[in-house]
């Protein structure tokens, strides 16, 4: 599905220059943050990739929110509500939040206590295997790259709204260059503080139109009545039950495996800070995007029921009720949603390719060489995904969900189940990752299943079964594997922080 469909309406601002000025000012701020942290991010690879493991709880609440929300939530949940019904959009919001809750309960503590730079390094610690780390790093790199496509698609939509004469395509390129610039300058330090600011902006701007909408339509019931008058199916869902089940499974299990979350967890100052960041973020997420699915998307349905693309629902409200300055602020908030995930994805992609893969292949790169390679990867990743985003394959939330389904299929057994099942071993982890990921890819690209998001209903159980069967059919875990298992479950382990975070027995130095 093309981003700009034929025969529909695309909202535009009334006066470009003022809105553009707001966007330019916003880009200047985030690039300035990158420049501010340039020197600090170069002190070590730990500073560049996980901000030295020193980020506090209050910062992580909004940083987690920003990373989880992304374009897939800010655009996608309301877009799903506009296209498929508000109940479907709310289902997605609850499933995503549930995934965050499960991550808080089952993974945030162990991953942070591991004290490593990346989740593939965490897998190496757990299974004492460079092969497991290599497979995990390859899956992370593929997923991080693919997940950036819908983010840059959203960037192009935003630029097309603020400055239609610029056009969608050039907007995608400008967004990619801007994102890569401040990430390559400031690393995870810059990413953290821009995410903190962007998280606050996203919370405010996601609910900002709601008071005016309620006044305009006469409250919640008036808004829903107007939406139902324009689309009689708006309050429900027009998707089959199997799609509901598939998208619920994908997001509940997939959030645990998202590469941007692993990097964010590892940047926390402690496992407690990581867990509490999730604890406060989850209800905030449900509240803001539940309101977006019903109220903002409902008003957009009433105001403009013939949008060229459902992902433009928020802009339809901005164009209808607000002037160019507020439109520019709204566009900046949506850019914040895009940036907050894209920057973390760029860091995760960079770390996988320039840190994890060389370690597993025993390439002896110095920290300076890793940083140089990492910055090349950031720019290469941003520009290559921008090329794909010029002609994107579907709706933003659809793309993010499909990538997340691949992560759930490939990584959930080894990462989530393996964290708590002592009998798991290296052969089981490798077999599950490869089988789950390939089965999901074959079902998706072979267009076998039919209903949206149903591929994970086959691929995830296959990966889990393979994980258990192969682990039980092969050798017992070695003593080293059991030591790796116990390490991140021990409350007596104090995670290292600062420049040397991640130098942990059995991981990066093996």
TrEMBL record:
Q: GO terms for molecular function, please? A: symporter activity
Coiled-coil portions: none
Q: Which UniProt keywords apply?
A: Cell membrane, Ion transport, Membrane, Sodium, Sodium transport, Symport, Transmembrane, Transmembrane helix, Transport
Query: Which residue ranges run through the membrane?
Result: 18-38, 62-84, 90-111, 132-148, 168-191, 203-229, 241-258, 278-301, 321-350, 371-390, 396-421, 428-446, 452-473
Where would you find this protein in the cell? Cell membrane
Per its UniProt entry, which superkingdom is the organism in?
Archaea
Q: Which GO terms describe its biological process?
A: sodium ion transport
Membrane topology category = Multi-pass membrane protein
Q: What is this protein called?
A: Cation/acetate symporter ActP
Q: Which organism is it from?
A: Halalkalicoccus paucihalophilus
Query: According to the entry, what is the taxonomic lineage of the organism?
Result: Archaea, Methanobacteriati, Methanobacteriota, Stenosarchaea group, Halobacteria
């Amino acid at each position: 599905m093309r981003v700009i469909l034929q025969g529909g309406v695309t909202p535009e601002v009334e006066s470009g220059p003022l809105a553009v000025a707001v966007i330019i000012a916003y880009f200047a701020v985030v690039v300035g943050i990158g420049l501010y942290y340039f020197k600090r991010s170069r002190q070590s690879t730990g500073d560049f990739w996980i901000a030295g493991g020193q980020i506090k709880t209050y910062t992580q609440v909004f940083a987690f929110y920003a990373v989880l929300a992304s374009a897939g939530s800010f655009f996608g949940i309301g877009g799903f509500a506009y296209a498929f019904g508000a109940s479907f959009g709310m289902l997605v919001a609850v499933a995503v939040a549930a995934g965050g809750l499960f991550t808080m309960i089952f993974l945030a503590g162990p991953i942070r206590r591991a004290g490593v730079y990346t989740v593939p390094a965490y897998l190496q610690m757990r299974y004492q295997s460079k092969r497991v780390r290599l497979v995990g790093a390859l899956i992370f790199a593929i997923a991080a790259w693919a997940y950036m496509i819908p983010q840059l698609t959203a960037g192009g939509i935003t630029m097309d709204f603020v400055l239609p004469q610029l056009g969608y395509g050039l907007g995608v390129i400008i967004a990619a260059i801007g994102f890569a610039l401040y990430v390559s300058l400031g690393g995870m330090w810059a990413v953290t503080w821009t995410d903190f600011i962007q998280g606050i902006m996203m919370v405010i701007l996601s609910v900002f139109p709601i008071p005016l909408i309620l006044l305009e339509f006469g409250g919640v019931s008036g808004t829903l009545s107007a939406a139902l008058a324009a689309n009689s199916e708006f309050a429900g869902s027009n998707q089959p039950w199997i799609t509901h089940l598939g998208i619920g499974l994908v997001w509940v299990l997939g959030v645990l495996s998202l590469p941007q979350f692993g990097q964010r967890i590892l940047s926390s100052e402690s496992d407690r800070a990581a867990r509490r960041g999730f604890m406060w973020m989850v209800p905030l997420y449900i509240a803001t995007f539940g309101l977006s699915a019903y109220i903002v998307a409902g008003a957009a349905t009433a105001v403009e029921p013939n949008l060229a693309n459902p992902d433009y629902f928020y802009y339809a409200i901005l164009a209808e009720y607000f002037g160019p300055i507020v439109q520019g602020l709204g566009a900046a908030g949506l850019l914040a949603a895009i940036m907050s995930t894209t920057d973390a994805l760029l860091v995760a992609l960079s770390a996988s390719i320039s840190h994890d893969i060389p370690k597993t292949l025993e390439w002896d790169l110095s920290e300076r060489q890793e940083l140089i390679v990492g910055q090349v990867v950031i720019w290469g990743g941003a520009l290559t995904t921008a090329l794909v985003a010029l002609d994107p394959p579907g709706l933003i939330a659809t793309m993010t969900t499909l990538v997340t389904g691949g992560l759930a299929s490939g990584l959930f057994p080894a990462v989530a189940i393996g964290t708590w099942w002592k009998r798991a071993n290296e052969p089981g982890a490798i077999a599950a990752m490869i089988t789950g990921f390939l089965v999901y890819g074959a079902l998706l690209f072979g267009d076998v299943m039919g209903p949206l998001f149903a591929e994970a209903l086959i691929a995830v159980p296959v990966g889990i079964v393979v994980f258990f069967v192969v682990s039980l059919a092969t050798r017992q875990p070695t003593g080293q594997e059991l030591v790796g298992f116990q390490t991140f479950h021990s409350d007596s382990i104090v995670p290292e922080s600062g420049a040397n975070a991640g130098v942990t027995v059995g991981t990066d130095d093996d």
